[in-house]
Design a protein that fits this description.
- The protein is α+β, with helices and mostly antiparallel strands.
- The chain has two domains: 2-86, no CATH class; 91-154, bsu07140 like domains (CRO Repressor).
- It is built from eight helices and five strands, in the order ααααααββααβββ.
- Strands 2-1-3-4-5 form a five-stranded antiparallel beta sheet.
- A hairpin with a 4-residue loop joins β3 (129-134) and β4 (139-144).
């Protein structure tokens, strides 16, 4: 029965912490923040399986991590300099139908990945792309030559979004 109470406690604790972060924050987690939050189960696993009978260490570790995520979110919102330091900048990958090798190398994106994003956006030829931009959220924005359409395509390399 103690395990049931521990699980209920962990559920309530994580729920309260996530509510504190807010709905907007959860929808805009940076990949790094998401990875940090995925550490929460690791903190509680030993306490839930009674390898560590004290929940205190788990609560302190999780509270510290949630606090850091929350404080960096507040600092990013209030201070532009901190936001620019913490967040990734967009990277131009294609300009006026031409691949830009420095941006591709820096972000480790291949021409095939750009072509795949173009196809998902309904564009067949690189000459029809005015801009391809890797956004901070990991999506590739494709802007058709002539500025007609903008498409955001998830950068899919089997590793998820980039920062």
């Amino acid at each position: 029965m103690e395990t049931v109470f521990r699980v209920i406690f962990v559920y309530a604790f994580v729920w309260a912490c996530l509510r504190t972060l807010g709905k907007r924050e959860l929808s805009q987690l940076a990949p790094f923040e998401l990875v940090m939050l995925l550490l929460i189960p690791q903190f509680f696993s030993r306490a839930l399986t009674r390898q560590d009978y004290s929940m205190t260490n788990s609560v302190v570790a999780a509270t510290t991590l949630f606090s850091i995520v929350f404080l960096t979110s507040i600092a990013s919102f209030r201070f532009a300099g901190f936001r620019h330091f913490m967040q990734a900048n967009p990277t131009v990958l294609v300009r006026q139908g031409q691949f830009l090798p420095p941006g591709l190398r820096r972000e480790r994106i291949t021409a095939d990945e750009i072509v795949s994003a173009m196809h998902k956006a309904g564009i067949e030829r690189i000459e029809d792309v005015a801009w391809a931009i890797l956004e901070p959220d990991g999506k590739i924005a494709i802007i058709r030559a002539g500025g007609a359409d903008v498409h955001n395509v998830e950068a899919d390399r089997g590793t998820g979004a980039r920062q």
